[in-house]
Structure formats: structure tokens, C-alpha cells
Design brief:
The protein is of the alpha+beta class. Helices cover 24% and strands 23% of the residues. It has 2 domains: 26-102, no CATH class; 109-232, L,D-transpeptidase catalytic domain-like. It has helices at 14-20, 36-39, 50-56, 67-80, 91-106, 213-222, and strands at residues 122-127, 132-137, 140-147, 160-163, 166-173, 178-187, 190-194, 209-211, 228-232. The active site is at residues 193, 208. Residues 121-232 form the L,D-TPase catalytic domain.
Length: 238
């Protein structure tokens, strides 16, 4: 049985990535941050979400871009896999910060709103809006919640009730010619699987639910063929 899964970041349209990344190409000036290489990658222009980003980073929220602001923003972008990491407070950076805030707020009660069914026994829930996934048994949380990386705009992870129908611990995608460890397919070529990139790397996967390696391994150990999967919400930016 040949399943051709999708994996993030393999077939990315260059133009789309740059346009979504946050109006970064517009500013021509750069801030000097110590070396020519650093200066070349740091924008002097303030972004449309300058104050919000500064406040989130616990900096003085004056709405003015400084060398220190740029370095702090760029460090956050590099850590979260946001490209280009140029220190510009654009929409992707601010959207990522809001997503992280929502994920932290979920705590150990991610299904407080009862949007994921509690009458199916063991089920893997995927909340696209908060980019979170967890496993519950009835109303009891069994694992998670953990951050995930779902489908980008145009290749969205499909919503609704699913079931895991095929698993391959060492799957190789013939469609994208890449490895998909701990792959558990639940909707055509869409599957839970491990990736090594950040869960916040823009613009997203090609439809699969990407997971950190340790989380994907835990899902592998906790789920089996026939287990329910429920996907709901809408990924920010899609």
C-alpha cells in the first residue's frame, strides 16, 4: 500500500512565502547591530504591530524601532522559525505571538469549550485555531496539549471527524521524497508525523499535522488504527 503523505516546507511557493512573511521587503534601511552580516538582516523600519510586539517581548512599548528592539524581535523570529528573521514587527510575527499566548492559556484543560467530542472514548483532538493537539479518553486528558503545525493557506488540514486508518513508523513520502517518522494517516494523505523544524515555521505544512519528534512518538504509542481524530477551527492566516 503506497500512501503519499504531505510534509511541510517541501513544496513552498517562494513568492507566497515572502508576501506572507510580513511586508519585510519594503524597508530599505537597516539598523547597525555590530557586524555587516547582522546589519544586512535587520530592518530599521517599525512594523504595523510594533507596539504589540514590543509589549509581548516585555520591552518598552513606544512603537519606535531601535537596535535593541530589532535584535529582540529577530531573536524571537529565529527561535520560532519565522522567515525572514529581519526584526520586523509584521503580521506573521504578531500572529505567532497571539497563538503562543492562546496555547499557554489552554493549560491542562484544552477542551474547556467542549468542541472536541467526549463521547467517543480515545480520540486525538486538533484545534487549528490555537494550533494545539491533545489526546483524551472521554473527558479525561491523556496527553498534551502540544503545539502542532498544520496546513498552510491553500493546503489546509481538513476539518471534521476522522479515524486513523494506516500507520507507518518509518514512512517515506514518495510524493515529496522526504521522511515522515511516526506517520499516522487519518484523512487521505494527511497524517500526524514528526518534523524537526519549529512548530511556528511559516507558512505551515502541506496539510499534515506536524509534531515535534517526542510528541509524535507519544502519539504513536498512545494511538492505534481505528482511533478517532477530530479536527476543528481555522488556522490563523488561512
Amino acid at each position: 500500500m503506497r500512501i503519499m503523505g504531505k510534509i511541510s516546507g517541501v513544496r513552498v511557493r517562494r513568492g507566497a512565502v515572502l508576501s506572507v512573511a510580513g511586508l519585510v521587503a519594503a524597508p530599505a534601511l537597516v539598523l547597525s547591530t555590530g557586524t555587516a552580516a547582522q546589519a544586512a538582516s535587520c530592518t530599521a523600519a517599525k512594523g504595523p504591530y510594533q507596539k504589540q510586539v514590543e509589549k509581548w517581548l516585555k520591552r518598552t512599548a513606544d512603537g519606535r524601532q531601535s537596535v535593541a528592539d530589532c535584535k529582540a524581535i529577530r531573536s524571537f523570529q529565529a527561535d520560532k522559525g519565522i522567515t525572514p528573521a529581519a526584526g520586523y514587527a509584521g503580521p506573521v510575527t504578531w500572529r505567532t505571538m497571539k497563538t503562543i499566548t492562546a496555547q499557554k492559556a489552554a493549560g491542562k484543560n484544552p477542551n474547556a469549550a467542549k468542541k472536541c467530542p467526549t463521547n467517543k472514548g480515545r480520540i486525538a483532538c486538533v484545534d487549528l485555531t490555537r494550533q494545539l493537539s491533545w489526546i483524551q479518553d472521554g473527558s479525561k486528558l491523556k496527553f498534551g496539549p502540544v503545539p502542532v503545525r498544520t496546513g498552510r493557506n491553500g493546503d489546509e488540514t481538513r476539518t471534521g471527524s476522522k479515524k486513523i486508518y494506516w500507520r507507518n513508523i518509518d514512512h517515506w513520502s514518495t510524493l515529496y521524497d522526504v521522511s515522515m517518522p511516526y506517520a499516522q494517516f487519518f484523512d487521505g494523505g494527511q497524517a500526524f508525523h514528526s518534523v524537526t523544524k519549529s512548530m511556528y515555521n511559516n507558512p505551515g505544512s502541506a496539510g499534515c499535522v506536524n509534531m515535534r519528534p517526542a510528541d509524535a512518538k507519544s502519539y504513536w504509542n498512545l494511538l492505534k488504527n481505528g482511533d478517532d481524530v477530530y479536527v476543528y477551527g481555522r488556522k490563523p492566516g488561512t
